[in-house]
Design goal:
Layout lengths: L5 H6 L7 E5 H11 L4 E4 L6 H9 L1 H7 L2 E4 L3 H7 L2 H4 L4 E7 L1 H14 L7 E7 L13 H7 L2 E3 L5 H18 L3 E6 H5 L1 E5 L30 H23 L4 E3 L3 E9 L3 H10 L11 E6 L1 E3 L3 H8 L4 E5 L6 H12 L5 E3 L12 H15 L6 H21 L16 H15 L4 E3 L17 E2 L5 H4 L12 E5 H18 L5 E6 L2 E2 L5 E2 L6 H9 L10 H9 L3 E6 L3 H13 L6 E6 L3 H17 L4 E8 L9 H6 L4 E4 L10 E4 L8 H8 L6 E8 L3 H19 L1
Parallel strand pairs: 2-3, 2-4, 4-5, 5-7, 6-7, 10-11, 10-13, 13-14, 15-16, 15-17, 17-18, 18-22, 21-22
Antiparallel strand pairs: 1-8, 6-12, 9-11, 19-20, 23-26, 24-25
The chain binds iron/sulfur cluster (SF4) (2 copies).
One iron/sulfur cluster (SF4) binds next to helix 25.
């Protein structure tokens, strides 16, 4: 990984009384060290990638403390790592993106939570829900309920969030329940400050070893018959212990308001948005002083019935602000109050939307509706006016834009090695006909957008090959599965390749070997070329292609017989290889590896190297493509075939041409796809390849003078 987290890593060293300034997720990382965590693992994914990235780059410092850090192969591996806390008083933390990561980890989580833990366990999940989310919209809450995990959802405030990390370990130890710390996207990226404490070197660690393994104890295995007793202990001992700790240590917060007849119970993570909504209605100030009493649930599972009763008693009505569906908290509060015979009316999903992110605007609508039903003496005109104004502004913007601005779906980076592969796939299908394409998670999923619009399904990370198993038998042509190298190592090798080989699957697997898990922040994987290869490639002005063959060797080792590696930018070779894979007589699994380094990571890697050469006055060449507008036929098929954002249109300088011609914008990184496409698809010969030379040598100057002289000759002829 070439992104540097040097500044964030420095903030991990802050000591007692120092002030941390920065992002929420880095503050959480610092809080782990302040809590005496002994081991940390996880699988990267927005919005919690930074946690692992910063720790991986801080390994030397963590080794001094005795903290072990592991970049796990997937979330299941991370969850299984927490098994260390079943027997040993070790505090462990892992992280991943939820809900998808929690799904992958589910098996290990069940087997962890059944015996329970003696060392505190904290699972930091990025709750990728709402605006800006990139996964299926489901709630982690369901896992907390089914596996009996403490679920923390802190008020977005760095001091509160870091305190809840310490509390999370402590409640886990007090109850033997693993704890999940759920952080929404906005909480992860929230910026602020908090007063630090010294980091704590764990009492048992890689620096301070145990004398011996724990004695054999059958009761700590997730295995019948002890699982029956474990299930009973969850409700008889662990949940009550967790409730006691939550109540005694005041993990939930009560903010009193002037009104005693109504109140709001809110998930901690939504507190800032609630205050924003109340402020718009004139019921709170920007610092959180609210007219209405608020109970903030920094722990959303288990709820403490006494706290719910005490808050609701004497109130006519309470609004539950709970994001997502189903309304687990609302249902539990309703049941709790009914059992305790408390008659407070409860509102929630009847006035708030069932699904979707609870933005300030959404919450404000719900509060207005709640007040209209339960507190008619509170004027809501101001709120109604604000909501109407917001809606009118949105409608006006939408009308003003009309169709003027086209939709801008996300796309591959300029120069991405995966774009050419889909251009080749488009051309191959012109020869053989349409094929079923099983898509996957990763940058290659950008091919689902224009101009490719490819992919019939996405069933999970590394699942593409497995997901075509039921499709292949009913297709006239072989089905294609597309997978990234990240997905291959995460799950695809076993779930897809092994299964296809075992079942004699007659399919084509296309692996995008770009060298990193690019979509999650270009983290290294086992097939990333090492630093020595990267340095050598730069010295020799070569690409990294062919320098790491772990994927090829693994596939051969497991029994793949039909295997081809093709450079990603070689469109015609890729087109022919695809056709070969779809038409060969070979009956088993056919694997094509498209190799080309992630352009984003390549440019980060090469940038400092080029800057060094520039400073030293060394010759530097930058390739750039261009279009000769006199030759451009104007059918724009190059744009439809490539989709590169730097391929654009301009008005022709020829007044007799009415249609726009293609042009290449300055962002072109000279990946060569334009030339390759022109050749493979026999497009018009309008593309030319240019070289921008910095610090030219005498040969360059001589060649430039000669070219200029020839040009002027033609000009005068
Ligand atoms: S991050 Fe890398 S692999 Fe992903 S779209 Fe950009 S260049 Fe392509
Ligand atoms: S060569 Fe073509 S595809 Fe490649 S970066 Fe330049 S304009 Fe984009």
């Amino acid at each position: 990984m070439e992104v540097s987290f040097r500044k964030e890593a420095e903030s991990l060293r802050l000591g007692n009384g120092d002030t941390f300034h920065g992002e929420g997720i880095v503050a959480i990382t610092k809080a782990l060290l302040q809590s005496g965590v002994a081991y940390v693992g996880g699988y990267q994914g927005a919005p919690v990638s930074h946690l692992l990235d910063v720790l991986v780059q801080s390994k030397p410092y963590l080794a001094e403390l005795g903290v072990h850090v592991e970049a796990c192969a997937n979330e299941a591996a991370a969850a299984a790592m927490l098994g260390a806390s079943i027997h040993y008083p070790l505090r462990g933390a892992v992280t991943w993106k939820s809900i998808v990561g929690t799904n992958v980890a589910a098996d290990a989580l069940s087997n962890l939570s059944s015996p329970g833990v003696v060392g505190g366990v904290l699972i930091v999940v990025g709750e990728d829900y709402g605006e800006g989310a990139s996964v299926i919209q489901e709630r982690t809450h369901a896992y907390a309920l089914k596996s009996t995990l403490v679920l923390l959802d802190p008020r977005p405030d760095l001091a509160r969030m870091t305190q809840i990390v310490e509390d999370g370990f402590a409640v886990s130890e007090a109850s033997n329940m693993p704890a999940v710390l759920q952080l929404r996207i906005r909480a992860c990226h929230l910026r602020g400050s908090f007063k630090c404490k010294d980091n704590i070197a764990p009492a048992i660690s890689s620096q301070r070893l145990l004398d011996n393994p724990a004695a054999f104890d059958y009761s700590r295995l997730a295995h019948p018959p002890v699982t029956f007793g474990q299930e009973k202990r969850k409700s008889a001992e662990r949940i009550p212990a967790a409730r006691r700790f939550i109540h005694e240590h005041r993990l939930n917060e009560l903010f009193a308001g002037a009104r005693s007849d109504i109140g709001v119970i809110v998930q901690g993570g939504l507190y800032n948005s609630l205050i924003g909504a109340l402020a718009q209605l004139g019921l709170a100030d920007a610092f959180g002083a609210s007219e209405i009493a608020i109970l903030v649930l920094n722990v959303t599972y288990p709820l403490v019935p006494d706290e719910i009763r005490d808050f609701c008693l004497g109130k006519r009505s309470v609004l539950i602000v709970e994001e997502g569906q189903p309304e687990f908290i609302e249902q539990e509060i309703l049941a709790t109050l009914r059992r305790l015979d408390v008659q407070t009316r409860i509102h929630g999903k009847d006035v708030l939307t069932m699904a979707g992110e609870y933005t300030v605007e959404v919450i404000a609508r719900g509060v207005v509706e709640f007040l209209a039903r339960e507190a008619v003496d509170i004027p809501v005109d101001r709120g109604i006016a604000w909501l109407a104004e917001t809606a009118a502004r949105r409608a006006a913007v939408s009308e003003a834009l009309g169709d003027a601005l086209p939709a801008r779906p996300p796309s591959f980076c300029v120069g991405c090695p995966e774009r050419p592969v889909f251009a080749a796939l488009k051309l191959a299908q012109k020869s053989i006909g349409p094929v079923h394409i099983a898509g996957d998670i990763g940058c290659h999923a950008f091919a689902t957008f224009e101009p490719f619009s490819m992919g019939h399904s996405i069933l999970g990370y590394g699942m593409s090959l497995a997901s075509r198993a039921g499709v292949s038998p009913v297709m006239p042509r072989r089905a294609l599965a597309v997978m990234g190298d990240g997905g291959f190592w995460h799950n695809g090798l076993l779930t897809g390749v092994q299964s296809a080989l075992f079942n004699g699957g007659d399919a084509v697997l296309l692996i995008m070997k770009n060298g990193y898990t690019s979509a999650t922040g270009t983290q290294d994987i086992i097939s990333t070329p090492d630093d020595a290869h990267k340095a050598d490639a730069m010295d020799k002005h070569e690409s990294l292609v062919g320098r790491n063959r772990t994927i090829e060797d693994t596939l051969k080792g497991i029994g793949v017989k039909w295997l081809r590696t093709v450079g990603s930018y070689r469109v015609d070779d890729m087109r022919r290889t695809l056709i070969d894979a779809f038409t060969t007589d070979f009956p088993g699994l056919k694997v094509i590896i498209a190799e080309g380094e992630c352009e984003l990571e390549r440019s980060r890697r090469v940038k400092p190297w080029r800057a060094k050469l520039r400073k030293a006055g060394k010759r530097l060449v930058r390739v750039k493509y261009g279009v000769d507008e006199d030759t451009c036929s104007g059918d724009h098929s190059c744009i439809r075939l490539s989709g590169c954002p730097t391929l654009s249109l301009k008005t022709s300088s020829d007044p007799l041409r009415v249609d726009p011609v293609v042009t290449v914008l300055d962002g072109c990184v000279g990946c060569g796809l334009c030339g390759e496409n022109a050749h493979a698809a026999t497009l018009c010969p309008s593309f030319y390849r240019g070289e921008v030379i910095e610090n030219p040598n005498w040969r360059d100057r001589f060649a430039a003078r000669a070219r200029s002289a020839v040009r002027s000759l033609f000009h005068h002829a």
